[in-house]
Amino acid sequence: MIGSGMGRLAAIGRRYPVTFVLPVVLAVATLAFFSFAQHARDNVADEAEAMLDRARVTLDNWFDRYRALPALYARDPRIIDALAGDPQPGTLDPVSRELAAWNDVANTLDTYILNRAGTAVAASNWQKNQSFVGQNYAFRPYFAEAISGRETGFFGLGTVSGLRGYFLSAPVVRDGRILGVVVLKIPILGLEEALDYAPHSIFVTDTAGVAIISGNPVLRMTATGPVDAQEQQVIDRTRRYDLAEIGPAPLEVAGRWADGYVLSHAPMAADPDMMGTHLSLSRELEIDDWRLQLLYDLGAFRGRLWSVGAAIAASAVAVIALVMLALQRRQRLIDRLADRERDRAKLARRVERRTRELSTANVRLEAEVVERRTAEETLRRTQNELVQAGKLAALGQMSAALSHEFNQPLTAIRTYTENAAAFYEAGRGDRAAENLARVLRLTERVAQLSKHLTRFARRSGDDVTPTALAPIVEEALGLLAARIGRSGARVCVTGTEDVVVLGGAVRLQHVLMNLITNAIDAARPDATPEIEIDVARHGADVEISVCDDGTGIADETLPKIFDPFFTTKEVGRGLGLGLSICFNIVRDFGGTMRAEPRPGGGTRMVVLLRSVPAERLAAE
Question: Any keyword Transmembrane (predicted)?
Answer without folding.
Answer: yes
